[in-house]
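Thanks for the sequence, V.! I ran N(6)-L-threonylcarbamoyladenine synthase right away. Repeating your input here for the record:
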Amino acid sequence: MVRLVLGIETSCDETGAAVMDETGVILGESLHSQKEVHLKTGGIIPTIAQQLHRENIGRVVQEAMERSSISPSQLSAVATTVKPGLALCLGIGLDFSLSFVKKHQKPFIPIHHMEAHALTVRMLQPVVFPFLVLLVSGGHSLLALARGIDDFLLLGQTLDEAPGDAMDKVARRLSLIKHPKCSTISGGQAIELLAQDGDRLKFHFRPPMGAHYDCNFSFAGLRNQVKMTIQKKEAEEGVEPGTLLSCVNDIAAAMQHTVAFHIAKRTHRAILFCKAQGLLPSFNPTLVVSGGVASNQYIRKTLKIVTDATGLDLLCPPSKLCTDNGVMIAWNGVERLREGKGILSYTDVVHYEPKAPLGVDITAEVEAAAIKLPPLKLKIMD
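Predicted structure:
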């Protein structure tokens, strides 16, 4: 009898559900994105996100179940994101799931959102542990070594904000929503699109943390550099804030390059640290890149230069699996069900955790190793 898992995701601005069998076959899925609403409000307002999850979760789960032709009685377990994320949003998914498992008397599997992102690639191909993971999104930025489905070593993380958040804020400051090419896409996507027609050499932004020989990230200082440049250009062009600048493509290209450069440098150091400590296998060592920002092709190409130079395979799930969805939660549930890890009874008390670190933090050891990087030309050819 093949076991079946229902996965539910509500940690931020996507309401997702999927039914999957234990071989990784998606039997039915549904996703409700709130992106258009948050684009209009200029960012995610937790109370609005919560209300949209509340309005849509029942329908989304029902659609996933109907598309899979599976009844609740046939499910082996329900897996739901309970950490980390926006408290109000996590609460909707958890409350719905706990009612569901109680009603149908099914086991419950609480899921760590970052672990789910990290392991999605194993649904698509047999990536063996250990492997290096880079998670870059609107809410997260971290490097970790995955040693098992619930065994991670944290090598570095953002000290302030995530790259997707920084790009979204710059896109808002540039009023890219007024650009005819960008009116319906996220800020990060708008930066990537306009950067294709920009000259990154027209502006120089200092890469963050150049004197820090660790694997942590910082994007707030870069965002401020870009904002100061925008102010300067507005004064030069004699335009009010909120007006599209003539050099918007060049600013987008320069910012995107600096973000990619910073991510690539930290990842390069993480690879060298893992190799020096014997943490990666000598045969087919792998870097898995996931999270919404992982769909940025310029960032992927920059990382490919690093993995080619260090002898790693670079693996990225397809773009639709890089952003938040129910499929990755169902898959993480499947992996836990197979190994019998973290499976609770429908009677157990479960709480959500808005802040939840990934794995064991060894960032101090990485910093102490103080690895200086060999020169590596991070030049992307068009």
